[in-house]
């Protein structure tokens, strides 16, 4: 996921060993997630409009249901829900959402987005526009190790390019989001890489060798697809000069992220630079700057509420034994290396669906995956790659994941409208599944 500092990993591991008393068994524990999906998807299908049904309302219904089916007093259940909603990793995401909204809005107010769009349209050939944006997203996410940071930096630009070229905003946003997961999966400084290699007891470089053999073919195939899809793209001629000074905020954000600075600090500095440029260039005064910050933060309101409701609901699922039920069910009939690898992939994927956080999903299932690997002779480098790859793939396509919510909020579109264009996560999942079935890469299988 790329937003949880390394020092929190050990604390997260401890957090998932908390007391699991008063558990509900089986499908009942998982039913709040089903309620959410049914309420949201069925209601949207009945209305034939995925924009009309607020995702916050669907999460509220599912959260109330999760409280009703849980055992314990009302105070105990609310305390459990609140501990999930107020988990420090949830709060860290909320801080990032707030700062990202303020940065994006103030950058737009000074003309930074327009300047970046103008430059992009000038330097990229028409037919390579889509592929160029995808490769830029892959490179940046690989370098900074965070999909969230990449989305914050590039989605506003992608949305601006979509407006200039007449391309669907959701499609352009999906290009960035897909590339962001390339680096989240492969980067040496990504917390998913740290979690996967630690739990499987292998070196990062060895896990990378396995991972790149799976991710690279998927990325190349998607790049070729974007070249094909962009063959008929026509970029309108840019007659306005590029506002080079206004490029500073985005260049600085990318440079500081590449240097390894925490994303919260990067965004705070970005907001400060936006203010300095806005004041000095006369784009806004003190009041105008505050208005732009408030507008950006307000635009993240629904995202913040969804994050807290999802955190509380998913904590109820965990405490009620939902994840334990998934794990025990999938490991019951494992036989052979291929079955063991498929089991690891299924466990981490389902855990990710239930936690909406790929790093936490890896930590939750890592020890189980290691035990399965030892029992059936699976190479620990391959099991680490499977954990990271499938968790990133699932995180990239669930509409309530932090990345999709962030991308949707910055682009002003529905998360579901983005998901259908996420070619890279789908390609990554397909190649990873084929790698298990056909025992590839052979050296580690």
Automatic annotation (TrEMBL):
Transmembrane feature ranges: 27-45, 51-69, 90-110, 130-158, 210-229, 250-277, 289-310, 422-440
Compartment(s): Cell membrane
Chain ranges of the Na+/H+ antiporter NhaC-like C-terminal domain: 35-230, 253-439
Bilayer topology: Multi-pass membrane protein
Primary localization: membrane
Molecular function as annotated in GO: antiporter activity
Alphabetic keyword roster: Antiport, Cell membrane, Membrane, Transmembrane, Transmembrane helix, Transport
GO cellular component: plasma membrane
UniProt family annotation: Belongs to the NhaC Na(+)/H(+) (TC 2.A.35) antiporter family.
Name by which UniProt lists this protein: Na+/H+ antiporter NhaC family protein
Organism whose genome encodes this protein: Candidatus Cryptobacteroides avicola
Lineage: Bacteria, Pseudomonadati, Bacteroidota, Bacteroidia, Bacteroidales
């Amino acid at each position: 996921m790329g937003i949880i500092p390394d020092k929190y990993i050990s604390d997260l591991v401890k957090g998932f060993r908390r007391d699991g008393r008063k558990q509900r068994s089986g499908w009942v524990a998982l039913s709040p997630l089903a309620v959410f999906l049914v309420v949201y998807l069925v209601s949207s299908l009945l209305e034939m409009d995925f924009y009309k049904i607020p995702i916050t309302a669907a999460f509220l219904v599912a959260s109330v249901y999760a409280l009703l089916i849980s055992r314990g007093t009302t105070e105990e259940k609310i305390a459990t829900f609140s501990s999930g909603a107020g988990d420090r990793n949830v709060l860290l995401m909320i801080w990032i959402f707030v700062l990202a909204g303020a940065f994006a809005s103030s950058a737009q107010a000074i003309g930074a987005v327009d300047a970046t769009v103008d430059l992009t349209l000038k330097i990229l050939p028409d037919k390579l526009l889509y592929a160029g944006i995808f490769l830029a997203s892959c490179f940046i996410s690989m370098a900074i190790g965070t999909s969230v940071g990449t989305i914050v930096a590039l989605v506003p630009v992608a949305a601006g390019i979509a407006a200039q070229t007449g391309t669907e905003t959701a499609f352009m946003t999906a290009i960035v989001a897909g590339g962001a997961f390339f680096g989240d999966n492969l980067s040496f400084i990504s917390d998913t890489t740290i979690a996967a290699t630690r739990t499987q007891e292998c070196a990062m470089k060895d896990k990378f060798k396995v991972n790149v053999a799976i991710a690279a073919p998927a990325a190349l195939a998607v790049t070729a697809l974007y070249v094909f899809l962009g063959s008929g793209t026509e970029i309108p001629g840019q007659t306005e000069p590029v506002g080079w000074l206004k490029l500073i905020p985005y260049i600085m954000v990318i440079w500081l992220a590449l240097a390894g600075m925490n994303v919260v600090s990067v965004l705070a500095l970005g907001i400060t630079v936006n203010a300095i440029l806005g004041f000095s260039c006369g784009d806004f005064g003190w009041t105008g700057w505050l208005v732009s910050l408030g507008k950006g933060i307000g635009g993240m309101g629904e995202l913040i509420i969804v994050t807290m409701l999802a955190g509380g609901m998913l904590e109820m699922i965990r405490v009620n034994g939902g994840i334990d039920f998934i794990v025990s069910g999938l490991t019951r009939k494992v036989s052979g290396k291929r079955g063991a690898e498929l089991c690891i992939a299924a466990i981490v994927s389902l855990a990710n669906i239930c936690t909406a956080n790929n790093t936490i999903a890896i930590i939750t299932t890592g020890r189980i995956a290691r035990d399965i690997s030892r029992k059936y002779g699976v190479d620990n480098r391959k099991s680490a790659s499977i954990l990271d790859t499938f968790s990133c793939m699932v995180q990239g396509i669930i509409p309530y994941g932090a990345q999709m919510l962030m991308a949707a909020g910055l682009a002003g579109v529905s998360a579901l409208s983005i998901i259908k264009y996420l070619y890279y996560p789908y390609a990554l999942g397909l190649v990873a599944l084929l790698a298990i079935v056909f025992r590839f890469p052979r050296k580690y299988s």
